[in-house]
Design a protein that fits this description.
heterotrimer, A mainly beta, B alpha+beta, C mainly alpha, B: Immunoglobulin-like, six-stranded mixed beta sheet, 2 helices, 9 strands, 17% helix, C: two-stranded antiparallel sheet, 11 helices, 47% helix, globular
């Protein structure tokens, strides 16, 4: 099951600047907090978020433990051609998630 | 457990976390230095939107906008955000380019305490631009017991 | 001419005072109104509200067959948008054939036990919260309408008594904070009126979705009282009273709170 919410327009006019917003379920455990037994809970964060448009990277974000739980990211992109935007999250403990958005550019 | 063992145990607890307990303005300055080298950031062009007073530091909305035409010749290459009192001074680093059209990014961050946040943008001409904001974190009453 | 002006003027005065009286008629405030603009925006935008991740998860669970009966919620109830619309505005309620009120989580667990032949989900379990949020979300923007069921009266009365009873080492009642001092500040934060309009809520402090029960336990800890066991009937009684007190206010599930 994917627990990702993405808001991006399905269509855009060529050259338009569109906003893409994404939210993903993830604890973003900092690695600085003690657990119930007094021991530090191991760090478990998303380290990197990337977006590609038809395979070319359009945006990349390196995250630190200071990014809030269930990370939210918004950014802009020029709509140059119809295609697929792939959002990708990777992080500790082998975390990897992906979300596709198809955008038609007229 | 005798006193000596207890003390040794305490010392181990104190020493174990290798990272500093908190970033400091110095640690932030050092982290910034690593990104910008010997350049001097110019105040301006960057707008850091963060509420001056937040009810809870665990999820603070933050938007960085940089004035830029975002063309091939003149665009923002990167945006970095730093803090001075969290356990680590880095918050995030974003890579952008002319394809973004607008140099605006939004996310939500954690703030362990009231503190100053600094955003730095690197433009395609090699210059660095900056903006800062002070955030006061108030704590809600009747918080949950430590679980 | 001057008479006309007088009539129009009086009309305006009357209209203004009537409007003022209407505003005065219901001064109840959802905790939403006491939040900063940034948090209000976070709640209002469905792709920015982290509670919506759990609503999404709840929608996935709604369609997933579970238990020995291998049935999903959808197999009996169909599309939640139609079948669950308004349901959360009427809870807690007494289930058919029962004699005690259950909250929405309790109702979902009854369905699991009776119809799906599945294990009950424990309190604050993520899937239980997600399903509850999904069901309650179908009633978003609908006014809270407690059922007219006289069998609920004694339970609601019990809730009212708990609400007004002093407890804990600080010797405070719910009413002292949330009626007598609501709107004032405690440690820099506005004391809310305690209307349960958005549960399960995404609380920034928790960095997760949580139930009204979890919030009530936080209150009890806050006044240094011993929290009731997780399955105690006190929580449902208090919820019955609070929902009645919030009658007519609109549901916001999933609400965001600091």
């Amino acid at each position: 099951m994917s627990n990702i919410l993405v808001n991006a327009p399905k269509t855009a006019r060529r050259g338009d600047v569109i906003e893409i917003k994404a939210l993903i379920l993830h604890p973003m455990e900092t690695g600085f907090r003690p657990g119930p037994n007094g021991r530090i809970i191991p760090r478990n964060i998303i380290e990197r978020f990337t977006a590609t448009w038809n395979g070319a990277e359009i945006f990349a974000l390196d995250m630190s433990p200071a990014i809030a739980a269930n990370p939210f990211v918004s950014f802009f992109s020029r709509a140059n051609e119809s295609g697929t935007v792939i959002l990708r999250w990777t992080g500790d403990e082998g975390f990897a998630a992906e979300h596709r958005v198809d955008i038609a550019v007229e | 457990m005798d006193r000596r063992h207890f003390l040794a145990g305490t010392a181990a607890v104190v020493v174990l976390p290798l990272a500093p307990a908190a970033a400091t303005p110095d640690a932030m300055a050092e982290a910034i230095r690593k990104v910008i080298g010997m350049a001097t950031p110019i105040e301006g062009r960057v707008k850091l939107d963060v509420p001056p007073l937040v009810e809870n530091g665990s999820t603070v909305p933050l938007t960085v906008s940089v004035e830029s035409p975002m063309t091939a010749d003149d665009h923002v290459k990167a945006i970095h955000v730093f803090n001075e009192k969290n356990p680590q001074p880095n918050v995030f680093s974003a890579r952008l380019g002319p394809q973004n059209g607008r140099a605006v990014i939004g996310t939500r961050i954690k703030l362990g305490d009231s503190q100053r946040i600094i955003a730095i943008a690197e433009t395609s001409d090699g210059k660095f631009w900056s903006a800062g904001a002070d955030v006061i974190v108030t704590l809600a009453a009747c918080l949950e017991e430590a679980t | 001419m001057s008479r006309w002006l007088l009539v129009v003027g009086l009309g305006l005065v009357f209209a203004a005072s009537y409007a003022a009286a209407q505003v005065g008629a219901d001064k109840r405030r959802s905790g939403y109104q006491d939040m900063g603009e940034a948090l209000q925006k976070m709640q209002d935008d469905d792709t920015a509200n982290p509670g919506m991740l759990f609503v999404q998860l709840g929608g996935q669970l709604w369609a997933k067959p579970v238990g020995a009966a291998d049935k999903s919620c959808a197999d009996c109830h169909g599309a939640a948008a139609a079948s669950m619309k308004g349901v959360a505005t009427r809870y807690p309620a007494i289930p058919q054939g029962g004699d005690r009120p259950v909250d929405l989580e309790g109702r979902i667990n009854l369905c699991r036990a009776e119809h799906q032949k599945a294990d009950r989900l424990p309190p604050e379990n993520r899937d239980l919260l997600a399903l509850t949020a999904y069901v309650a979300h179908q009633s978003r923007d609908m006014p809270i309408t407690p059922p007219y069921d006289h069998r609920l009266d004694s339970f609601r009365q019990q809730g009212a008594e708990i609400y007004r009873r002093r407890q804990g080492q600080l010797n405070l009642s719910c009413a002292i904070c949330h009626d007598d001092n609501a709107g004032k500040k405690l440690a820099g934060v506005v004391i809310p009126e305690a209307h349960p309009t958005g549960y399960p809520i995404y609380r920034l402090e928790w960095q997760a979705l949580g139930s009204l029960k979890r919030r009530l336990r936080n209150c009890l800890v806050g006044i240094r009282a011993e929290a009731w066991p997780l399955d105690a009937s006190e929580y449902v009684a208090l919820e019955l009273f609070l929902m009645d007190r919030a009658k007519g206010l609109k549901l916001e599930t999933p609400a965001v709170r600091p």
